[in-house]
Amino acid sequence: MKKFEEKTITSQSIFKGKIISLQVDEVELPDGNTSKREIIKHPGAVAVIAVTDEGKIIMVEQYRKAMERSLVEIPAGKLEPGEDPAHSAARELEEETGYGCAEMEHLTSFYTSPGFADEIVHMYVARGLRKIEQPAVTDDDEFVELMELTLEEAIQYESEGRIKDAKTAYAVQYLQLQQAIGK
Predict the structure, then answer these.
(1) Which of 23, 20, 1 is nearest to 11 (CA)?
(2) How far is Cα of residue 50 from the mean position of the Cα atoms in its chain?
(3) Taking CA 22 as the corner, what is the angle to CA 12 and CA 41, rounded to the nearest 5 degrees?
């Protein structure tokens, strides 16, 4: 076995939903003992840092049931089976905000909660934004309000707790760094 590898002995599917599934694995630990691991399987997601020519960050406000409150976030969404992440990022930007872009550049990818979930988020930077006359519509169960914030407003929203999710906090820090180095 590789260093720290946990070999799966058994895997039991507990739940299969529209977005996630849950399984419980019995694993052999590096020292030979066994343990149980509860694992959430997720198809992956994309998130988009989009800034207008006027320097406004494109965000959306939406209700998040798991948090029982509304949050302000950068545009993001779940990958469809077999979908290219860059295509998904452009689709989500259009559906949630009505914006398209000339360029979609991959910035980074990160795991959201590797202790119990395999979800990976692919982060993109959209450049050359333009409003689309007939944008794709959001999902039937998705209600969002478009927001355009300055970097200073986004920082203020973080201090007020209106921006609280990791991908959006990452985006704000990225934009702060870009501003600090003069890009």
Answers:
(1) 23
(2) 14
(3) 115
Q: Distances from the Cα of 47 to the Cαs of 22, 40, 124, 175, in angstroms?
A: 23, 20, 6, 14
- Between CA 82 and CA 160 the distance in angstroms is 38
- Which candidate, 49, 149, 62, places its Cα nearest to that of 101? 49
- Its pTM stands at 0.92
Structural tokens at position 42: 């997720």
Instruction: Please give the torsion angle defined by the CA atoms of residues 46, 49, 50 and 51, in that order, rounded to the nearest 10 degrees.
Output: 180
Alpha carbon separation from 96 to 65, 93, 113, 176 (Å, rounded): 18, 6, 24, 24
| Rounded (10°) angle between helices 151-160 and 166-180 | 140
Give the contacts of 141 (CB within 8 A, at least 6 positions apart): none
Which residue's structure tokens are 């992956």? 44
CA distance 45 to 169: 16
- Give dist(CA 93, CA 97) in Å, integer: 6
> What is d(CA 28, CA 92) in angstroms, rounded to the nearest whole number?
40
Span 93-127, pLDDT tens digits: 999 999 999 999 999 999 999 999 999 999 999 99
* Contact criterion met (CB below 8 Å) for 52 and 129: yes
Distance (Å, whole) CA 150 – CA 147: 10
